Every structure is written in structure tokens, then in C-alpha cells.
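Homework help board

Subject: predicted structure for assignment chain

Our instructor gave us this sequence and asked us to write out the predicted structure in C-alpha cell form, then describe one feature. I got the C-alpha cells but I'm not sure how to describe them. Can anyone check?
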Amino acid sequence: MISDADVIIPVKRLTESKTRLSNLLSSGDRQKLVLVMMEDVIASLKKSSLVNHVVVLSPDRRVADYAEKLGVETMMDKTNGDINDSLAEATNCEIRDRNGSPLLVLPVDVPLVRATTIDAIVSKVGKPNHPLVVISPSIANGTNALLRNPPDAIPTRYGVNSFEAHVAEAVARKVHFEVYRSEDLEVDVDTPRDLYEVMRKGDLTKTSGFLKNILRDQRP
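My C-alpha cell output:
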């Protein structure tokens, strides 16, 4: 029997987001980009048949307000700003409040993700008493989706080379893990080249339309 999953989308303060794009986008455009990407990610999650509950985790009230307008719940991040500390606290809340359903961490900057990909990842979960981790790596060896069953099967290790770090955690804890590779989850928006990949591949996304509008006269 396949279990539905809960989802956490961690989002930084808008003023601190996507600084690597500062040579191409203004601060205002970078902030708008994050909100538009969040809209695309949430839209795909809503189309998924195996997602039960979505929470946006952020220290930014503007992010929370926007997420609530999109029809999802929010959790204010009151930690010191470290993503792994934030996710540890959010994971504990999910375990307490949601009875330990499988938990998917999905970043905000993967606007190309499709509902079918989300369902394919969640469908890997079998019986609740069979611990499992599913990791979807980025091109740059990051982690663009992390499914944990139970939610605390491994701690999160986001940062440089987080894909390898998450694999190492699963191995150390003797938790079965699977690697799920998908073209729509390979690209997370961090560099100017990523923006053009989204414009090239994401015709049906709001992010692509937003970028084409503000970058129409520029080239990678």
C-alpha cells in the first residue's frame, strides 16, 4: 500500500535569496522570482495524487503570506537561519502533528518539477515500518528532493555536496535508500545558466514566462 506524503518547502528570507544572480537580476526581481518559483512548485504538488499536506517553512512573513494565498499552510522559522536546524525543528513538528507520515523536502527553486515526478518519488514508499530514503540529486551534486520514511529516518544535511552527505547518512544508519534521477528535478535555479535552462524547458511554467519577460533582450 502506497502512503501519501507530507511536504516541506523551505524558503529563505527574500532579501537573502538568489544572491548569485545579482549581476543579472535586481533585488526586486530576485525576490519576485522566488515567489513565482514557489507558485510553480506548489501547483505541481497540488496536482500530485500522493501528496497529503504541504507546509512552507520560512522566516519571512511575506513568503508566508504569499504561500497562504496559494492555499498551503506555513510554519515560521524561528531558528538561527541554518537550513538543517530549521528542518530538524519542522520535522519534529510534523512527527508530532501528522503522525509520522512520509515526509518530502522539496526546495523552492525547482520550478520544472512535475506532479508525475513527485508521485513517482512518493510511490517508492511501502510499509510504514520499512525505513526508506529517496534522494533526487541536482546536476551540481545537491539534493533537489529528499523523501524520508519515517520523517526522521536520517537528519538533513543540506549544503555543499548534500547528495553525497545524505547518502552517507543513510549508509551510516543502515537505512535503505534509492536514488531517483529526473530531468525536471536536475535543475535548481542558482546561476544565470539555470535561468536559461528554465526558459528553454519550462514553457508551461509561470517562472519561464516571468524570466522571458525580464530577460528578453539578454543572452546567456
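Reply (TA_rk): Your C-alpha cells look well-formed. For the description, you could write something like this. The two ends are 46 Å apart (CA to CA). That's the kind of observation they're looking for.
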